[in-house]
């Protein structure tokens, strides 16, 4: 048999296999149960439209406000509201000066430390739960060394894993966390800006753990 005849025979065999495969698929589709066809159609319908541009979104997944004890001890007095407003492109006051982003973010996860969340501002509140305690006296002291010593006492508990009872009042912490979540929800604008409810888990007994940002999506 010549090379030409061999080539023709192979080509014809290939066409035959392709044709049979196509017929088989058509038959399977035609005889498929109506229920499965409906499921396939429904799945296709609920998928979001394909985005050929593959949009890139820019945001911050780790930011503190004055609700974190370390940030508060260093002079930060911004609130969760300030953090979200700043992320959305609004002007906020930071260390006595107005600050505004060049471009607004698409999303923000405010991850204040879970340990003693929001306690810092309360320790200097003259009408708060610590108003008549040593914490208020020390944290409002004009002597930086006194306030620093109080802060050091707090930080030490992260390593010893022995929270200070007076700063861990469930009533205070529960109220703060409830408000914290509500603030994030308030600034969430679907399609425009995403505000994640989040916190930073800081406990590191004997320095065995690294910090972890926990983000609820």
Question: What is the topology?
Answer:
Layout: H1 3-31, H2 34-46, E1 59-63, H3 69-73, H4 80-87, E2 92-94, E3 97-99, E4 107-110, H5 119-123, H6 134-139, H7 144-160, H8 170-187, E5 194-201, E6 212-216
Parallel strand pairs: 1-4, 4-5
Antiparallel strand pairs: 2-3, 5-6
Q: Based on helices, strands and strand pairing, what is the structural class?
A: alpha/beta
Shape: elongated
Strand content: 5-15%
- Tally of extended strands? 6
Short summary of the structure?
This protein has 217 residues and is of the alpha/beta class. It is built from eight helices and six strands. Strands 1-4-5-6 form a four-stranded mixed beta sheet. It has a two-stranded antiparallel sheet with strand order 2-3.
Model description:
There is one protein chain. The protein is of the alpha/beta class and 217 residues long. 47% of the residues lie in helices and 13% in strands. The chain has a 4-stranded mixed sheet. It has a two-stranded antiparallel sheet with strand order 2-3. The longest helix has 29 residues. The radius of gyration is 30 Å and the shape is elongated.
Please supply descriptive tags for the structure shown above.
217 residues, four-stranded mixed β-sheet, two-stranded antiparallel ribbon, alpha/beta
């Amino acid at each position: 048999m010549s090379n030409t005849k061999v080539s023709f025979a192979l080509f014809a065999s290939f066409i035959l296999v392709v044709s049979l495969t196509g017929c088989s698929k058509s038959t399977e589709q035609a005889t498929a149960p109506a229920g499965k066809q409906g499921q396939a159609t429904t799945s296709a319908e609920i998928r979001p439209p394909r985005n050929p541009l593959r949009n890139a979104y820019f945001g911050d997944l780790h930011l503190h406000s004055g609700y974190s004890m370390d940030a508060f001890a260093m002079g930060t007095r911004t609130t969760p509201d300030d953090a979200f407003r700043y992320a959305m492109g609004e002007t906020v006051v930071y260390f006595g000066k107005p600050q505004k982003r060049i471009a607004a973010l698409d999303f923000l996860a405010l991850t204040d430390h879970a340990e003693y969340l929001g306690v810092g501002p309360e320790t200097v509140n003259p009408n708060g739960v610590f108003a008549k305690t040593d914490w208020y006296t020390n944290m409002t002291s004009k002597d930086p060394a006194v306030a620093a010593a109080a802060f050091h006492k707090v930080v030490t508990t992260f390593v010893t894993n022995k929270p200070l009872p007076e700063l861990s009042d469930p009533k205070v912490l529960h109220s703060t966390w409830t408000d914290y979540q509500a603030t994030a929800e308030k600034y969430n604008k679907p399609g425009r800006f995403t505000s994640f409810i989040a916190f930073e888990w800081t406990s590191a007994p004997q320095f065995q753990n690294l910090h972890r940002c926990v983000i609820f999506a």
